[in-house]
Amino acid sequence: MSTSSGVHRDPSRPQPLRVQARAEATHLTLVLVGDLTFGTAASVEEHVGAVAAEAGPDLPADLVVDVAGLDFCDSAGLAALIGLQRRAARRGGTVTLAGVSGTLRRVLHVTGAEILFTLRPADPAHGAESGGRAG
């Protein structure tokens, strides 16, 4: 399998997940790069928790998750995304998935989970540094 950077990788070997989280004026942004799987999904909530603790009551309720850099997302990864949606909803916010494509788009559609999120194209200004497409 070749990622968008042209680097060939063995699809049978899990890739680590890199998570960047930052609080912005109107929303919290997460940028996910790598594999969102059973082995990496917990780190997403850890990053959100750390940013939430730092921001305190000023943490925006809305969340934007840039998934353009995901190479793979399994059912645990999907569950993590749904968990983020539930967390945002409890605070009156929404979750936008930016850069959804390939297999992740299909999984969201087939499972019906797409109705839980706002889907939008990747934002080049805040896009993932490197990586491929969930697929």
UniProtKB/TrEMBL annotation:
Pfam families: STAS (PF01740). InterPro entries: Anti-sigma_ant, STAS_dom, STAS_dom_sf. CDD domains: STAS_anti-anti-sigma_factors. Residues 17-112 form the STAS domain. It comes from the Bacteria. Belongs to the anti-sigma-factor antagonist family. This is Anti-sigma factor antagonist.
